[in-house]
Design brief:
about 250 residues; MetI-like fold; mainly alpha; 2 domains
Length: about 250
């Protein structure tokens, strides 16, 4: 019985991919100018022969991936401590949470004119725009995770003489890890969404640049190729975070 259940769970992801391809074929037949899988494969082969901006498709993938990784790493380093202190310290929360809530609803794309004016159109401006899009969910999930820590744990640790710093590091942070990882995975998705806007700033490389290029030239197959790469890379990184989460949070039931 267990072996049949394992086979069934192994088949389900393959079944979802088959359904996606069938839906794609139907859309190509029903919607004029929507590229079919065959057209996308042909465009991919042409892209190998005639790279855009003298950069291979893997070069464009690496350019976007590097921007997302830099912004996400910066968001993790800044966002997790910031969220922890908002959730832990009433003074810190009263001072900074209102400012954070004012800036949080502003979409990253709205910052493009100001950031371009401050930093120019170089790589730093692109990474900063992606950072703005990725840091928000990390901060929100982190302080929400702190708020959900059972008060009994805090009271019990203090009754044994634990200091505030010990409670924060040994109790609150481990108890919040699941929520923090959820925020990081949400931030990863946001980063790939924002990279399109970031690469509108005089970019000559990147998957967002290819999507913009395909949209401007009505080359929808090029847009689909870029979307496929974004989906594959995002899924790989997300599964990587799942692996790390299972190692750091073995107590979480799946």
């Amino acid at each position: 019985m267990k072996s049949l259940k394992k086979i069934f769970h192994f088949i389900l992801p393959l079944l979802s991919l088959v359904m996606l391809v069938l839906l794609w074929l139907w859309a190509a037949e029903a919607i004029p100018s929507f590229p079919s899988p065959g057209e996308v494969v042909t465009r991919f082969q042409l892209l190998q022969e005639r790279p855009i901006s003298d950069t291979s498709i893997l070069g464009h993938v690496w350019a976007s991936l590097l921007r997302v990784i830099k912004a996400l790493a910066l968001a993790i380093v800044i966002g997790i401590p910031f969220g922890l202190f908002i959730g832990w310290s009433k003074t810190f929360r009263g001072l900074f949470k209102p400012l954070f809530e004012v800036f949080r609803p502003i979409p990253p794309i709205a910052w493009i004119p100001l950031i371009s004016l401050w930093l120019g159109v170089g790589e730093a401006s692109k990474v900063l725009i992606i950072f703005i899009g990725t840091v928000m969910p990390i901060v929100v999930n982190t302080y929400s995770g702190v708020a959900m820590v059972p008060s009994q744990l805090l009271d019990a640790s203090r009754s044994f003489g634990a200091t505030n710093s010990q409670v924060l590091v040994d109790i609150v942070l481990p108890a919040s890890l699941q929520s923090i990882f959820a925020g990081i995975k949400t931030a990863l998705s946001a980063g790939w969404m924002v990279v399109l806007a970031a690469e509108m700033i005089s970019a000559r490389q990147g998957l967002g640049f290819l999507i913009t290029r395909g949209s401007d030239t009505n080359d929808l197959a090029l847009c689909v190729i870029s979307m496929i790469f974004i989906g594959i890379i995002g899924a790989i990184i997300s599964y990587g975070f799942d692996f790390v989460e299972r190692r750091l949070c073995p107590w979480i039931e799946r």
